[in-house]
Amino acid sequence: MSNPITTWIKSGMETYKDREDWMAERVSENSVNSQKLSDERHGPFKPHNVHQCESRARVNFRPSAAISSLAGSEMGDAGSFRAVRAYQSDFAKRRDEILTDIAKNG
Q: Cβ neighbours of residue 11 under 8 Å, at least 6 residues apart?
């Protein structure tokens, strides 16, 4: 006859295989997370060191136009979310035009 408290403790203990599996999972998750950080830092839409916060009270941000003919429009501010949204909506309109043209003319 075994002690019920000892049985309860043994049932809650993890095995060596469980610890090894958990460690392998943790290492793989850290590998994926470090690659995500690297991709986000060096991606096409993000500048280098974008993860660092701005320590100044007033951020030195002056929007600059990528193309002078777009200055003053939503697409004019290079690197802004408004510009990306404007470009994406224009691309979606152009895509729909192309798809309707293909549907009509074959």
A: none
- Give residue 86's region: left, alpha or beta (phi > 0; psi -120 to 50): alpha
In the chain, the amino acid numbered 58 is: R
How many beta carbons lie within 10 A of that of residue 93, not counting itself?
10
Q: Which residues pair with 65 in a beta bridge?
A: 77
Per-residue model confidence as pLDDT tens digits over 23-60: 999 988 888 877 776 665 555 665 656 566 666 666 66
d(CA 38, CA 61): 24
pLDDT (0 to 100) of residue 104: 93
Distance CA 27, CA 23 (A): 6
